[in-house]
Known about the structure:
The chain is an alpha/beta fold and 338 residues long. The chain is built from 13 helices and eleven strands.
Amino acid sequence: MSAAPGQHPRAGEAAGPRPTLNVLDVITIPAGGNAAGGITASKDAAGQAERAGYRRYLLTEHHLNAGIAGGPIPTLLPLFAERTERIRVGTAATLLGNYRLIQVAETFGALAALYPDRIDLGLGRSGVVPAATPEFPKHLAAKFQLQRRLFGRTDGDTTDLESLIDELRAFFAGTSVDDQAGPFVAPPATAATPQLWVHGTSAGISARVAGALGLPFGSNYHTSPRTTLDAIAEYRAAFRPSATLAAPYVMVSADVIVGDTDAEAQRAAKGFGHWVASIRNGRGQGAIPYPSAEWADAHPLGDDDRELVADRLATRIVGAPEPAAARLAELAERTGAD
């Protein structure tokens, strides 16, 4: 489904029975590679996605992972916009707790001015730092604490997400007012029109705020398949029409590994379980460089790690293009994804 220039997508605009396809890229570093190689490969993939007719190319924000180069997204995003001509590029999501709001407004205002009708600003909460528990071991909690310190996060910095989005919209509208200084503007944010999205994992603040403000909602099925349906239901229940969106509009992410044949796809997918386990088990430096099939064959997953990633293994889509497309269509029907 495509949106009118400068406006949010509206439910019911799709030209065919299947939803728009987008790419969500974490900018993975392959085994034996480095960050520069990963970024270059992703830029090339964005061009391929545009030529193939994908609607959006979205970058995720992850930090302190040995196998992910997608950290400095505000710096990288212009490179993707410059490499392409028509495809929308954006974030899914910009973690608001990692930035001053004025930085987000000016950065995406400038991008929206330079690349009109092509910039998506996906907003996400930075979340809270969990306490160490048997289910969330001490070393993993310490990693979250480290990120909190390095990015200067504070308790509850994104709890009032609705107020943050209202303030961001005021920057873009040129209607900001300070209690002491009075009205002010922040070029190049003023009059900028990036498409605003809210992304979330569970039925909580993000889903409710997206609905209440009449914004489109991205649900992270690929990271938390068990909570997706509840999150979407929460969003739809809270939805109120806005000036830019008349009805709920949902984007759903999925792990998809495709090859020319099923056998090729299965081979490419051999390192997937190890990669996800490295994110979840907290034993190393976050996501490892994506393993080769040969390495994965030589290092089978242990029982504990296999149980840890069972949901991701069960819900990923692996195969040749036609069966993979059919499974994506099933997921879209089950979730009502646009």
